[in-house]
Amino acid sequence: MSPKSRLYTLVKAWKNKPFQEVRDTCGEPWLGLNKQAIDEYQSWSTRQATSNEPIFNSSGTKLTGSLFRPLLNPTDSQLLRLFMEGLDMISYWYRSGRSVPGILPMPSHALVSSDCIDALSDLILNSRLPVGLVNLGIQKLPSPEMEDACEEGILRLRRLGVLIHLLQFSGTQQEIEWLNAIQPEAIHINISLLRHQELPIQLITQVRSLQIAIYASNITLVKDLENATSLKVDHCYGGLMMPPVSRHQILHISDSRIAKAIFSLHPHKNQNGDKK
């Protein structure tokens, strides 16, 4: 019997038992599984979590990255552990022969702490990942009194080859000033917010003048995809493109299959220029 089958049998047997804490002669808790089996099950369970949101180019013909969703709402005590899991996820893809950039969201208040920056730097250096695979997603701008400290933290991480994304970009004056100050590699626009208002063409032109990539997030309706196409964004993600998947499933995403599904959602021209 393979180790995986043995683990499955043990877990299934434990799951079907009514919960009852039993202690051995040493007084240690025992739940029907030894410590090694429990650790193996927990590790396997973590790897199967659908915590990675695939990101594609605007036409859906290529997988261009992944957003690590557990870091969108972490507690301070979870932050470093989840960041380490995100780095491990990117390393897993890289070791498997697929270089998929991972976007690891980070609250701005964490970037103000020098201790936190030290810890993040150590984790990034120990991961030994190539430049471009680790992307830091800043969820919202810091308060004015913390801007200088936050910029210093971002600069330290950038020296390690980390790319910076500004998530939840809405075009406020403070955000525009930040674009000029820190010059992030990318911004993310919640495209669902543009369903009933004029598209910010002028703002997009201004962002492009700074050579910043544009991501359209939360694409859940065909209208969202049409707006993203009109804005000529560089990357798209959301439920309409593909819902979150496990880190193992990322390795098996068929780009051509995604493109075919996306193009079938809206009319397109044939070689003669007529709509099909």
From TrEMBL:
<protein>
    <submittedName>
        <fullName>EAL domain-containing protein</fullName>
    </submittedName>
</protein>
<dbReference type="InterPro" id="IPR035919">
    <property type="entry name" value="EAL_sf"/>
</dbReference>
